[in-house]
Structure prediction request, 932 residues.
Amino acid sequence: MLALSDYIFYFLAFTAFFSACSVILVQNPIYSALFLASTMVAVAAIFVSLDAGFVAGVQLIVYAGAVMVLFVMVLMLFDLKHDLDAFSPGILSGAFKLASVGVILGLIMGSIYMSADMVFNSQVTPIPATLDPVRGLATTLFGNYLFAFEVIGALLLVIAIGAVTLSRVRGGTHAND
Amino acid sequence: MPMTDVFLKVGLNHYLFLSALLFTVGMLGVLLRKNVIVILMSIELMLNAVNITFIAFNRFQQPEQYNGQVMVFFVMTIAAAEAAVGLALAVMIFKKFKQVNIRFFEHLKG
Amino acid sequence: MQNAPLIFAILLGAPLAGFLFNGLRFKSKNYLLAGTVATAASAISFLCSIVLVWSISGGVTGSDGGEGGAAQVGANFFEWLSVGGFRADAAFVVDHISAIMILVITGVGTLIHLFSIGYMSHDERPTKYFSYLNLFLFNMLLLVLGDNLLVMFVGWEGVGLCSYLLIGFWFSDQAKAAAGMKAFVTNRIGDAGFLLGIFMLFITFGSVQFSEIIARAPSIAEVGWNGPLTLACLFLFIGACGKSAQIPLYVWLPDAMAGPTPVSALIHAATMVTAGVYMIVRLHPVFLMAPNALHVVAIIGALTALFAATIGIAQNDIKKVLAYSTVSQLGYMFLACGVGAFNAAIFHLMTHAFFKALMFLGSGSVIHAMHEEQDIRKMGGLKKYMPITHFTFVIGWLAIIGLPPFAGFFSKDEILWQSLSSPLGHPLLYLVGLVAAGCTAFYMTRLVALTFWGKSRFGHDVHPHESPPSMTIPLIVLAGLSAFGGWLGFPAIFHLPNFLEHWFEGSIKMLPPNEQLGFLEGPLMGVSVVVAGTMAFIAYRIYIYSPKISEEFTKKFKGLYHLVLDKYRIDELYEKTLIRPLVEASRGLWAYVDVNFIDKLTYVIGDAVRGTGSTLKTLQNGNLQQYALYISLGVACFIFYIMRL
Prediction:
């Protein structure tokens, strides 16, 4: 008998899938951005259902809150009234692309099926209540992965500087006005 | 009923299957769409799919440990940073060429 | 002898050092310094030779060798090659045979070096010349002193190289450079034979060391023509033909007169051309086991002696006459080897070195005085202008035509006697040798008469003068040797000690003397003296008193005369039958095979690569999404591969 959590999973999965397909299928890029945000919310919900609450929160804040806002802002900068048809031309190459992606999907599904005995028996096991997810995550992150964490920090610094450098205009923003 | 229950009862491979689907959808977006921004968004979609995989494995294989979640942290960080840089580049390109159609950027032609 | 390696090192090292010293300064025009260094190096080698020869002679000349002195003295410097069963060391040995050789080489060599100082005083590149001379000396010593065939071969090739360098010394003249090339190529053909001979000897005896080969030479003579020893000896003889200018490979020697005259004296009279004779004498136990090969040697030697002598009669260039005379005398040496009279061959080698070098140097003196004129028809009456040169040249002349008591008489007579009386000899060989001796007397007398005697035929603008002492002293020394050098080998019937026979007693196998014909030795000696004297007298009468006879003769027998003058057109024959077809064949190969096939092959490969490149280039059209497609295809393959695992 399917439990409630199963139904919730199926609902969330369907939402995510539908939003993802819409991202790539709709014409207007603003709509694409909005659908992407919806996908991310669905994914965050999936994280919650997998008992990864903290990560779900981070997902919402970073992805849906910051990255998507950035996307929408950039889209606003462009004047896209005279828009183009959404897809790259070429039926033949389009067919090739579909075919190759289909092959990859088939292969991944095949590999999931082939390792079925590993995943078949793995059902959800209850988590001991004494587990403190945030504390555990923090311990792991700043313990085992400290070096990687620091490197990521340095990387973020570099990215920030890089982004500013890339978009710098000599003489200031209004120099060419 | 119990037969189909085996397939319908949610287990690890369902999450993996979902992740694979989202990943391929994202890949299709990269290959098929003309707008540069939409391509970047498809890349974000792919990264999200990967995150699902990590968390799923973490929950089903190592519930007491948090390695998967830490990986998701890092992936998220990198994805956000990369989106920022990509968008900065897109803005610069648009300012210069007044185009966001990727067909106009065939400068790697050799 | 304790310090043998040291003496050997100095013996070989002095000329090598001289070569390096002069070679590094080859642009210098300081002929005095270069010449002095070179002559000093040669003199040091001479002193070392004396020391070595003294050590093996027991200290007392004329004693029966073997007592008090070792049979040989050697030095092994390092192990050069050792592969499987093959071994050759950088080792040198002086025994009774090579003792004579090194004394001749270094002694006559030093005199020629001294002569060269005066001769090359006005040359453009004297230092280079002296460095080449020293290099030649070094290589010649390697050849003679090597204790195995490989070291000898190194020296063999080395003297060939130096011969090429020295013949073509004035290389800016195309003809002279071509003469050098001709010498080298002809030599090379002989060397191929020599190498084959070495290979066969190694196969038969398992070693290339002389002492081992001689020890293993079997005591049963081979009959027939296809035994390994006969083949080996024939191949070796081909090598000797190339180096010592016998038929059919003699053609380079007359052309080699393009080089400076001291070079002709040293290389083409005294030393290098005798290398072939030396090699056969060295290996004489092996040759004695292959009598058919020895017959070939004798026949070729006799024929060459006669052939070259006839050509010499008609030549007008003083050096060409001497060149053909050298070929002829070398033929005598091979004739001696061929009849088994190896000690006579060495004896004649030694006396020939003396008088031929003397005459070449004398001709050099004459050429120098006549301001590079070499045609004897334009000379004459030089007797009063160059007394010393004339006197020494006359001594050489008397020696070569074989008048007693000069050197040539004893050695040539020994050869003629042995060619008749030896078990391997034949009356026909004797006859050919006698006729050649007559021709020799004729043309040598003609040469001396036209050059030194009679009326002067040169113009008033030529003022010949005697040469400086640096050039006349060697002439005098060599004249003395030509006069008295023959006294080392008195024949038995004179009842005087035969030093050389004793000297060679342990080293050279003597064939048993002919008891039956022994009585003929004295009379035949008289016959040869009479023949030589008569021909000389005839020539003297013709060319001094009645030159018209020779003119009428050339007019009456114009065809024959021109044939002989053109050296029987052998060079032209070779050109037509051998050289031209080879050149045409190689040109055809180049024009057809090389251009059409080999070049095309490289072009095809190049074009294929370029075509592939341009085809693949179409993949790169700048379409980013296509690139992404390729990536995804690659990912698909990768996942597939992982899954297969």
In short: The mean pLDDT of chain C is 84. Chain C has three domains: 1-147, 148-565, 570-644.
